[in-house]
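Chain A, query sequence.
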Amino acid sequence: VGKAAEDALKLFATERELTLRQAVAKSVQAPGLSPMARRGLAELDHVLNLLERDINTMSPSEAMNAVLQRTGYWSSIEAQLDTDPEAASRLGNLQELLNALAEFGQRATAEGPAKLSSFLEEVALQSGADSYDAMAPAVTFMTVHLAKGLEFPAVFVTGLEEGLFPIAAGNYSADDLEEERRLCYVAMTRAKERLYLVHAATRRLFGRVSANLPSRFILEARVAGGQGRSLDGTDDQDTQTPYRSAFEPATPSAPPPLTRLKNGMRVRHPEFGLGRVTDTSGSGEGMRVTVLFENGVARRLLVRYAPLLPA
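Chain A, predicted structure.
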């Protein structure tokens, strides 16, 4: 369905006072659509009908995975891995979304199991700055950008780890690092009385648990004369924070064990369960495997983002 067909469908929906979903269902009546566009919209309507039928019986992560698989969105991004440098990042973001949904699904509610609609309501995009009430007895969550111009009695700056804040090297330059440093300064100066600089010992990111070094910005704050104590109450002034520059090449290391997957190996996926590797291609971070799971479904996975464990 191209741009012209999309515009024609929107016009049809406006004239008939229909939602876009209703317009898709009635696209056979819409004027100005090519035969190819009509076939595409008919296929989309079929997929949406199946999702609407099944989605309320699924867990949030199952529902989102069904959307990604049945619409072909996941496979379309996988097909771009060799040609689009942003494709791997998009897959990583989708995997993080599935991780968040899996964690949300583990929280039962008084009304019953958590549903995808509840998750969407919980994470509905809302500006922390727009809803900020200085008199409310509550914690305000917001990005550094949204916090510009505001001040708070106490501020927690989280995620201060190498590879996260500042972000990992990749194609970033020294100018990019300086911009990250300016952002960190903005975050720190939002505090009027107390400032907490927080880094995690381990973090689940892109489906994997990693242990990153504390951010260089913590050390720089100490060198600049910052006074403080660790959250366990011990004095941290003499603590040296070791880190490797995000702009220095990483020391070569052996690939993770699961990059050595072989045909016939049994593996476990937190969402799909037990399975057996039936095909492998590529190597290192570009390695892909096909896994036949016990439910009879075969899935093509990028090992870098698939949280596979040996069974």
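DSSP finds eleven helices and nine strands in the chain. Strands lie at 152-157, 191-197, 203-205, 208-210, 266-269, 273-281, 288-293, 298-302, 309-310.
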